[in-house]
Design goal:
Blueprint lengths: L4 E5 L7 H12 L3 E7 L18 E3 L9 E5 L3 H12 L6 E8 L11 H11 L4 E6 L8 H17 L6 E6 L10 E3 L3 E6 L2 E5 L5 E5 L2 E8 L10 H6 L3 E6 L27
Parallel strand pairs: 1-2, 1-5, 2-4, 5-6, 6-7, 8-13
Antiparallel strand pairs: 3-4, 7-13, 9-12, 10-11
Helix pairs in contact: 1-4, 2-3
């Protein structure tokens, strides 16, 4: 295929092995790769933006494969993509990739994920976008995930990327020859127990550390075909999950189940 202009970001920072592997795979296939990513760890920042302090971006080409143009930005993942699209890049990209995240982004955890939010920023601006995560925090062999991410992105781009579609890819921690098949998946619901650990500092003051244990609810969120497995369940079986997402958060429940406004508002507030 013809070379694509690809923008890559992440939330693990400029020194992360995952983003370097993804950029190297894309550049090795002949694509024109630009990286704009945080200058340090920015995991679980969601879709946050920096409003009270200026953003700084410094060139970091030497950290990446030959031919990759890179900046390390002081902001969040969403800041990075916005800054790239509206200031740093001379031409808009054909594709936005985010990752490879060091750890999974499954189920409802996508709401907190800086990796997914960086890709979502591309979707909001009308660009094809894919977030990719390695579904284990300790796995550091990213070549298989990088190759699969580029296969998916290239294939869907060639076929015609549906408007408003964000893809979320999670790859289990296995070498390429041991990966199970790729499947479309629904999002599971991920809940946590014992979310905050209470501790005491050396001066006797109480503080709290967010360190909950995940509870995987293998039932889906209610969206998506019932015959699709959830992303959590499929990755647990050794397969790679591909989940279609979108910026639209409108409720998908039953509209008739919503209460009448007369029951919840004052009469002077209701539309006559």
């Amino acid at each position: 295929m013809a070379p694509l202009r690809i923008l890559i970001s992440n939330d693990d920072g400029v020194f992360a092995d995952g983003i370097q592997a993804l950029a190297a795979e894309a550049a090795g296939r002949g694509h024109l790769v630009s990286v704009v990513c945080p200058d340090r760890e920015r995991s679980a920042t969601g879709h946050g933006l920096t409003l009270q302090t200026p953003l700084r971006a410094e060139r970091a080409d030497e950290l990446f494969a030959a031919g990759v143009t890179a900046w390390a930005c002081s902001g969040t993942p969403s800041d990075c993509v916005k800054l790239a699209l509206f200031r740093l890049l001379e031409q808009p990209p054909d594709l936005v990739l985010s990752g490879i995240n060091h750890g999974p982004n499954l189920g409802t955890d996508v709401l907190y994920s800086g990796t997914v939010s960086a890709a979502m920023e591309g979707t909001i601006e009308g660009l094809p976008a894919l977030a990719v995560s390695s579904a284990d925090f300790h796995w550091r062999r990213f070549e298989a995930a990088a190759a699969l991410a580029l296969d998916v992105a290239e294939g869907l781009h060639a076929a015609g990327w549906p408007e408003g579609l964000l893809l979320n890819l999670n790859v289990p921690p296995h070498p390429a020859e041991s990966l199970g098949p790729l499947r479309w998946c629904r999002t599971a619901v991920r809940r946590y127990i014992d979310q905050f650990e209470k501790r005491t500092d050396p001066r006797g003051r109480t503080y709290y550390w967010l360190a909950g244990e995940v509870v995987d609810d293998l039932e889906g969120t209610g969206a998506g075909p019932a015959d699709w497995p959830t992303d959590v369940a499929w990755v647990r079986q050794g397969g790679s999950s591909l989940t279609p997402l979108q910026p639209e958060l409108f409720w998908r429940g039953s509209i008739p189940s919503l209460p009448a406004l007369e029951a919840v508002g004052r009469s002077d507030q209701l539309l006559r």
